[in-house]
Design brief:
The protein has about 230 residues and is an all-alpha fold. It is about 65% helix and about 0% strand. The chain has a domain of about 140 residues. It has 8 helices and no strands.
Amino acid sequence: MTSLHHSKDTRTDEPVTDVMASNVAVERRDTQSNESDSADDRATSGIRVPGASVGLMFGAFLALVLSAWAGIAPFVGPLFGFSADGTSAWTWNHVHALGALVPGALGIPACMLIMSTARRRYGHQSGFTLGTWGFVLFLCGAWLTLTPVIWPVLEGSYFQVASPAMTLAYWMGYSSGPGVLLVAFGAFAMGRAVRRFPSHPMLAHNHNRSAAQGVSEPSPTADDMLSKHVIIH
């Protein structure tokens, strides 16, 4: 009898882990994580992240054509009776070289580099390339626009004497027309340089959340503490 009574009163001092409470805590944490991901997916499902900048590519192509025309207009214009200074075709002089060929030649590679950058997806475009070559294109356009005004002060007349209609055609076809358009597109490219990353707050939140994964461990939550809790009986 004494031996039986002793066996009933025997207690163990070893800790016992509450396995059911730990499993419930893990399930709650997984459920909350799935609900959070579902909410983020629903919030971003209506957000459209654009791909390549078609408008920027089209504008760069037009600027490329304008730059090429501005550079060769004094040389090929007389072939079809469009000579602003009265010279014949392929006449090489300072006004043709410095006033048209140089800014046109600089504008062509600038437009090609802008087109190359615009082919990338929005958010992955090089702001440095857009800003730098957009500024170069802006200067080329200003160069073409101001040369007919500055050249008479430095050297001599830029356009020959003609009727008002032909004088306007010379300004629009040789200098001011292509120049103003190149200035506008260069400013547009510089403006796009500061808009190369997504600006929507939910996209920025997801971008930061994705960047943080695998870098640092999150702070323990109440569920994590509960899952590690040990009950001592």
